[in-house]
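Dear colleagues,

For the upcoming journal club I promised to circulate an example of a predicted protein-ligand complex. I picked one with prephenic acid because it came up in last month's discussion. The inputs are reproduced below in full, followed by the predicted structure.
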Amino acid sequence: MADQDAPKPVNPDNMDLADLRDEIDRLDGEILQLISRRAQCALKVAEVKMKAAPDTAVFYRPEREAQVLTRVMERNIGPLGNEDMARLFREIMSACLALEKPLEVAYLGPEGTFTQQAAVKHFGRWVHSKPMPAIDEVFREVEAGACTYGVVPVENSTEGVVNHTLDSFINSNLRICGEVELRIHHNLMAGPNTQRDKISRVYSHQQSLAQCRKWLDAHMPMAERIAVNSNAEAARRVHGEWNSAAIAGEMAAQLYDLDIIEHKIEDAPDNSTRFLIIGTQDVGVSGDDKTSVVVSMRNEPGALYHLLQPFSDHNVDMTRLETRPSPSGNWTYVFFIDFAGHVEDVNVRQALDEIRKKAVEVKVLGSYPKAVL
Ligand SMILES: O=C(O)C(=O)C[C@]1(C(=O)O)C=C[C@@H](O)C=C1
């Protein structure tokens, strides 16, 4: 391009409103062209994948998405914050992937749950999402191939692990393809005809009731607390009942037309929940990964020590250990372990090889990128 054709540098400080809007129009034109070119590239990527593996092409690549979002955050110069910028790119990538192949994602419903919020955070808005009534039904939907991926909660920072999810992995061949972390804000909501001092029942998911226990003790000690399948289910019920309230997220209040009586009633201000993305694919190395395994050990003295020793010997950073009763009974246990690294990393492979020699069974649930957003 000749020098005289190059766009003149502009200094927004010296521009009036009309000039600033002209500049925004010009920049929007550039952004539009760039997004279109990016989408064309994604279509070409789909062609290349189809050519290489016509029957088994994998379009959604969590490791690549994590790298793209991490790079956006590293290169961002502001004034938009890193997370805001990454969310914009999250949606662009989501739209590009939908051009390649629209994804079907099952989640723990009904509509308006935190799990749906987590699904949107992870995949963006360009997927077909399908609410399922229970965690094991999310697993079944993905196992049956009706949806390619599923989203289920796995642990909460105040309430701990979601046992249903861990137990579902024991009898399933599904893998973990990703994780999402979500800050959870609980709100007390009711229909427009319900007065706060008349509330006699509070519905929510059992974990949400527990996460708001102190607030409920202090402000609604007389109201009966009723556990239901999900917070969105609680909101749906309250939609048709007087003198009842639900504890749920803002999405549920909008969906079921309820008024929020009190925002952020959770006892722990940094309350957050971790969700897993389940599917059938093995995810490649992103450079900042996590691995989850489930190990069953013989019930003998020192079993746990022998299980953990190889992690320390090979410098593998263990991030979580959960014990669950083994489905075979007899007071035996299985251990769910998360650690940093990917099964293709040498130290991880060595640690797992040693554990396999000592364990009754080792099942790798998946290596996947650490949550970026
Ligand atoms: O790089 C790929 O494999 C792509 O399909 C492109 C792309 C993107 O838009 O950047 C889209 C979907 C994938 O999940 C990852 C990245």
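Two points we might discuss: The longest strand covers residues 175-183. The two ends are 38 Å apart (CA to CA).

See you all on Thursday,
B. R.
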